[in-house]
Amino acid sequence: MKSLLVVLTMFLTTHSFSQSPEDSVKQTINKLFDGMRSSDTALLRSAFAPGSILQTVVKNKEAKVFIRTEPLDSFIAFIARPHKEIYDERISFEMIRIDGELATAWTPYQFYVDEKFSHCGVNSFQLVKLNGKWKIQYLVDTRRKQNCE
Taking the model in full, what pTM does it have? Predict the structure, then answer.
């Protein structure tokens, strides 16, 4: 009986502390948004790989589609600027795929400034596993104010 209890305890302990690869990817992505909400630029930066790329698919006034690229340092500087509001991007993990050291995640979101809705869209993440940790290498998103159910 004691040996069964020991084995059961070891099983539960091992499984409660081990993370699936998908959970590890989610944890990295959540660092980004936790850093945004708390204006913690060190946490925010820790989610990204060196040389990462941030882009947004946008339409101009003539409805022409183009891609806007923002340097990571500019994004972090924006978050670091003093502000009273909380930037709160609420995501759901719709899809995560992993192959070795490459992962992709599709995360629909709604963005709030404090509790006021701002816009919605989808994030597409490409992550790489560097030194045993997932890092965001590429992030492209869409942004819109309509059809945000």
Answer: 0.85
Nearest to 138 by CA among 65, 80, 67: 67
Structure tokens belonging to residue 39: 């204006």
Nearest to 24 by CA among 129, 106, 117, 113: 129
The secondary structure of the chain in percent helix, strand, coil, rounded to multiples of 5, reads: 35, 45, 25
In 60-101, beta strands by DSSP E: 65-70, 87-91, 95-99
Q: Encoding tokens for residue 8?
A: 């059961």
Q: Are 111 and 131 in contact (CB under 8 A)?
A: no
Convert the pLDDT of each residue in 97-141 to its tens digit. Answer: 999 999 999 999 999 999 999 999 999 999 999 999 999 999 999
List the alpha helices (DSSP H) in 18-99. 21-38, 41-46, 72-80
The DSSP code sequence of 27-42 is: HHHHHHHHHHHHT-HH
